């Protein structure tokens, strides 16, 4: 069974052969320009930036967990003090 990508490529190949060379090239160029334009609008980040932000998030999460533990400890101490 053919992969969907192979079927699409076969259909595109038939279309390319049926069109005059200039028309096929113009369609390809316009399609590439449109895709590039739309991808630029999506504001993707690089893998490096993604990895940096992932590390920052992990560090922040660890600090938050530590602070939550410290807060719980302080609450216990305060409750003990108020219970006297």
Order of helices and strands: HHH
Describe the sheet with the most strands: none
Number of helices: 3
Strand fraction equals under 5%
Got a strand count? 0
Shape, please? rod-shaped
Q: Whole-Å distance between the termini? A: 78 Å
Average pLDDT confidence is 88
Bin the helical content. over 70%
Question: How big is the Rg?
Answer: 29 Å
Walk me through the structure:
The chain is mostly helical and 84 residues long. It has 2 domains: 1-43; 45-84. Helix content is 87%, strand content 0%. It has 3 helices and no strands. It has helices at residues 4-18, 21-41, 47-83. It is rod-shaped, with a radius of gyration of 29 Å. The protein starts with a helix and ends with a helix. The mean pLDDT is 88.
Which features would summarize this protein structure in a list?
2 domains, mainly alpha, 3 helices, 84 residues
Summarize the model shown.
With 84 residues, the protein is mostly helical. It is built from three helices and no strands.
How are the SSEs ordered, and which strands pair?
Elements: H1 4-18, H2 21-41, H3 47-83
